Amino acid sequence: MGHIQDLSRRAFVFGSAAMAGGIAFGFYSGAEAAAPTASDNPLTAGLGPNSVTFNPWVEISPDKITLIAQHADIGQGVGSVQPIMIAEEMDLDPGQFEVRFAGPSPAYFNTGFKEELAPFLASDQSPAAEAGRAAALEGLRKSGMQMTGGSSTIPDTYEKLRKAGAVARETLKAAAAKRSGVAVADIRTRSGHVILPDGKKFPYVELAADAAKIPPVLDAQTRDPATWRLIGKPMMRLDVRAKVLGELKFGIDMKMEGMLYASVKLNPNKGQPMKSYDAGKAQSMPGVKKILEINNGVAVIATNSWYAMRAADAIRCEWAPSVYPAEQADHWKVLQSSFKPEFLGKEWRKIGDVEAGLKTGTRIEAEYRAPYVAHQPLEPLNGIGLVTDKGMEIWVGHQSPQFVQYVAATAIGLKPEQVTFHNQWTGGSFGHRLEYENVRVLAEIANQMKGTPIKLVFSREEDFLQDIPRQIALARYSGSIDKGKIVAADLQLASTAPFKGLLERSGAPSKDPDPQLAAGLWNVYYDIPNFRATTYEAQGLSPSTTWRSVGASTGGFFTESFIDELIHAAGLDPMKARIEMCAVPHYRKLLETVAEMSDWKGPLGNGRGRGVAFVESFGTPVAEVVEVTKTDRGIRIDRVWAAVDVGKVIDPVNFENQVQGGIVWGLGHAINCELTYAKGAVQQTNYNHHEAMRIYQCPVIEVRGLENDPKVRGVGEPPVPPAAPALANAIFAATGLRIREMPFNKFVDFV
Amino acid sequence: MIELTVNGIKRSVDVVPEMPLLWVLRDELGITSAKYGCGVAQCGACTVHIDGKAVRSCQAHIGEVAGKSIVTLEGIDKKEQHPVVQAWIEHQVPQCGYCQTGQIMQAISLLTKISKPTDEQINQVMSGNLCRCGTYPRIRAAIHAAAAKKMAEK
After folding, report:
1. A75, A241, A245: residue with CB nearest B96
2. SS (H, E, C) A449-481
3. B12 and B63 part of one domain
4. Contacts with A252 from chain B: Cβ below 8 Å
5. For the packed helices A78-90 and A153-180, what is the interaxial angle rounded to 10 degrees?
6. Which of A108, A282, A289, A462 has the most CB atoms less than 10 A away?
7. Which of A208, A70, A222, A213 is nearest to A146 (CA)?
8. Of the partner residues A250, A309, A664, the one whose CB lies closest to the CB of residue B98
9. What is the mean pLDDT of each run of 10 residues along chain A (751 residues)?
């Protein structure tokens, strides 16, 4: 403890030329001389004697092999799949290596974001699109930005981790060749050993010192997929056993010698300071050690987190009022008045002559709404912080290591490199662990308690009150149908800007339009001759941030519901019409697949109904069918079928779990969740107000993974967006009621 | 000082009697399988067994339960061989895993009372345990598998 590693000093500079039309990040820098570059290996500095590291992902000492997980595990399983991809190439078996989360370093810059940040449709594989992605990649390389998110772990690491494993394997073989005098070509590897032709075996750990003395074999070739032992085959996630046995320590379970507990009461008017407080009662409560004033509230230091929470609750505070509207109704009013040129985000796509198209045939208009929603992973925000004269150490589960350094350092006047970050296993995120409320507050508290490790735990109520929600959005859609075809669609959306908000709070503001508002809006793959997609960015509302599937969680609902409205108005079958209109062959295949899985044959009758939806988000196309029954007590969600194309399924079991979980997430929040503001604070402060799905409402979910996409894609978020519109479309089929606003329980009951 | 028995071991803690068991386990005794999720019996992540019954430890004041038999997942007899634990591993139920210790304690309790539960009975007993990752299809499958395992053992 107290040891300050030589961590990254960054210069986040995104050339706006590289990002033309996409998003350009602002300049953000704790940059100093001799900033490490992406090619530097951050493992070198911490290497022990007779140990070797070949690249930022593999480290071998005389007693163990350590594989580095650069993406944070927030429950999506990447603490397992990342090392598995390395182990595949290194001929390691599960159990033969340890896994460690990466510290902050530009070496771990996220290459996967090139797909999302280049302004091209995912289906566009043209040379211009690929050139745009290559330019985006260079921007990312220069930025050194290390972030988990956007379903990018697999796209980022699929090539580079296998390559890292191959380099390690070939270098170990070269070391064995040098030691034994046998030609490398006659040497093989198996199960953590280099094996000579005579059968003599060297464990990798025994070769570490030798391997450190030779240059790494950088031109090592990755294996032919036909020879894979692990990838693509059903496997046991490495964290399952420890999680089931209750042995895995999450961030909230960590303990340190001499540690005290903290809890907070913060201004629920987000981003505003505290005016005054009265801690008279709290001061004398059991277990209370100290009461501290911090920037936007108070903290209680106590001997137990329950004492801290209880005392924090007893403090009376006077808050500065919100800068956004205090009452929810006024948030909607702001959105309604945001469809104006001065709030224009961008016209993302225009095909044909929309005005003329809308005048052809029958015109349909609809307004759709999606509320603020909370993330609320089950592990509340927490963290352990220790400030000494040298700097700060912080133990917290987070998706953006470098931004944690920046936020913590900025809060207490340190330089980012004075903050040492230790990532932790995290009990869910859904976008929550991309924000910094706990980080900033923990830095402030630990700074006032220098020398004492402080474990901060938010109460669930405080976590709800401080949750930076999903964007609120309102869509105004127009379309027209003529002679049984959709001839025009004009999709206009006003919304708060989640990704831009996140970047700003990360210290990397952008002036470009928020690309997440285009998700589910511009990437429509139906052959509609006159089409336009336009975003407006509402100003002065609640801060918002990325929430599992981000823009597509709202845009996908609006668009796939509206397309359904147009299809029904044209008198067509929702499935057949979509298949016929779908312009991308392997996306069409997904619709055909869910049609086959669900045995889609048109209306079911007898109070039963099915809805279909198709949304591509983060490059991954997903088609879903939801089946419901109208009962005496309300709508019952019976079954869901999902077809997902990620190009290559790496871990089939976790893949299915992620798809099922994404559907449960999408359905649960669509039926009963919203955050509403009153007097500047959200009114929902625990799960009884914001329940989402429980097991009694969970349908049977059948999943199929297809592998036709030319690229390897992620799966953490893309199953979410089609769930809500497929459900709304099913409810329409069963009842004739068209629901245009989430949560749906405003209009129907669910059983 | 309050004396209590957790997982068959006598312990003593110096806390107020109204402190809920959950924080005695986690912050005083370092027993962390019971998790803090909501604090108001809405999520089930803190589920432990008190005198053999599944209880939300965030609602059980230590002063009232100190004399009873308290068992957390750590103290389940022959834990690794337990049919529920085995089924949870075989079905790879967890994603983030934060709720799963509570789910398992609730499922063990369910199968003690009903040896072969229907989906409806699973819904009734398990709906107090929230899983934000949405592992419900696997929880259901694992409970059925555990029930079958227990039957086979008899």
Report:
1. A75
2. CCCCCEEEECCHHHHHHHCCCCCCEEEEEEEEE
3. yes
4. 35-36
5. 30
6. A108
7. A70
8. A250
9. 30 33 40 54 96 98 98 98 98 98 96 93 97 96 95 98 98 98 98 98 98 97 97 98 98 97 98 97 98 97 98 98 98 98 98 98 98 98 98 98 98 98 98 98 98 98 98 98 98 98 95 97 98 98 98 98 98 98 98 98 96 98 98 98 98 98 98 98 98 98 98 98 99 98 98 97
Q: Which of B36, B61, B110, B132 to mutate to test the interface with A (most CBs of A within 10 A)?
A: B132
**Which of B19, B123, B135 is the closest to A661 by Cβ?**
B135
CA pair distance A9, A12, nearest whole angstrom: 10
Chain B residues 132-151 within an 8 A CB cutoff of chain A: 132-140
* Residue A346, strand partner residues: A535
Q: Does A284 touch chain B (CB under 8 A)?
A: no
My answer on whether B67 and B84 are in the same domain is no
Give the domain A338-374+469-746 fold.
Aldehyde Oxidoreductase; domain 4 (3.30.365)
Inter-chain residue contact A252 with B131, CB threshold 8 Å: no
Q: Which of A74, A248, A375, A378 to mutate to test the interface with B (most CBs of B within 10 A)?
A: A378
Rounded to 10 degrees, the C-alpha dihedral A624/A630/A634/A638 comes to: -40
Is the distance from CB of B53 to CB of B69 less than 8 angstroms? Answer: no
Domain A38-106+152-240: give its CATH architecture. 2-Layer Sandwich (3.30)
CATH of domain A257-322+375-466: 3.30.365.10
pTM score > 0.80 for this model? Answer: yes
Please give the backbone phi and psi of residue A611, each rounded to the nearest 5 degrees, phi first.
-130, 150
B39 in contact with A, Cβ within 8 Å? yes
Q: Which residues contact A508 (CB under 8 A, 6 or more apart)?
A: A12, A25, A26, A28, A403
Same-domain status, B31 and B92? no
Domain end: B51, B75, B99, which one? B75
Residues linked to residue A69 through DSSP beta bridges, in sequence order: A101
- Which domain range does residue B66 map to? 2-75
- Distance in Å, alpha carbon of A722 to nearest chain B alpha carbon: 16
Closest Cβ–Cβ partner in A377, A686, A701 for B96? A377
B-proximal residues of A, 658-717, CB under 8 Å: 658, 660-665, 668, 686-688, 691-696, 698, 700-701
> Helix, strand or coil for residue A614?
strand
Give yes or no for a contact between A520 and A617, defined as CB atoms under 8 angstroms apart. yes
Give me the total of CB pairs closer than 8 Å, taking one residue from chain A and one from chain B.
173
